[in-house]
Request: fold
Amino acid sequence: LTLDSDLQHAVQRSLAAACEKSHAAGGTAIVLDPKTGDILALANCPTYNVNDRARTSPECRMNRAVTAPFEPGSTLKVITAAAALEEHLVSASSDFYCTGRMKVGRRSIGCAHGDQHGSESLNDVIKNSCNIATAQMGFKLGKTTLHRYEKLFGFGEKLESGLPGESRGLLTPPEQWSDIQLANVAFGQGISVTPLQLAAAYAAIANDGVYLRPRIVRGVRNPDTEQVTPDPIPQGRRVVSPQTAQEMRRMLQSVVDGGTGKLAQLDSYTAGGKTGTAQIAENGHYGGKFVASFVGMAPAAAPQFVVLVAITDPKGGHYGGVVAGPVFKEICEKALIARRVPRDKAEHPAAKKRRQRQDAAAVAEA
Reply:
């Protein structure tokens, strides 16, 4: 398998602790290698003892990463912005204006929390997670073009990752979209995706615009020789240009450095990512339950890992940056250190002292 057993263990512990702390109904965490599509770690909560499967509930046995699609909310704004950049409908210097509400036919949409962002650059739109400006980009793209990019980024289709029970999610044909649905899809409502689909879409941004199908099988072991014959890396497809991908990574870094993802900041490494706080629809209406998520990559300029964390129905705080951001930080730092990725920013003094203590303890134990 592609799994890294040490990283898998760390991800399971981090996710379980986060779900317990927030009294969540469930959660998923995924680590991908964006250069190969390899699933390095995948954890679900709640889980079960595989040696005692008979006494577990179906919910515990569910692989949420591929069988539990959800409306992604603000994490999908990255796809809309990337599409608009790629189509040359907007640029890094484009101006937007957010009044807090926008009329669409007889309906209206608003920015979360009643925010009125005023004048914004494209970077600000992503950094502030602005619904209004993202909807405006959706209208610039139009139904057919936005739908085409959603498909290019892997939504609405089974990934064929090798994991059983994959869901396609929900992506209706563009001819069935009303104007309000076009606006909603642009900022992540009216569409459902699986966590693995979303992680793979971000991996395309991390991989300079080339989408790779995620995979769980690395190769086949010969039972006689124990030699592993690796499977070839799946051929990717270009979804956006390297320039668009690089511009999006710069914007995602601004989210972590000074936007809604501050709690995802890493010690000694740059990172980029996007928060999501998506309402859960129940009986056709949005209620008081949320999926708090964070999808990111590190190091920001040349990502080695893409990490997704999604926490379902956390109690108390429910914002993606608050609930899922710190879990991203914990997982990503462990992955980067384990791979010995060179640090690309100054180490925080407190983190440096903590690392020195850990190194000294490791030497003493050895």
User: Anything to note?
Assistant: The chain has a mean pLDDT of 92. The radius of gyration is 20 Å. The chain is about 35% helix and 20% strand. Residues 5-22 form the longest helix (18 residues).
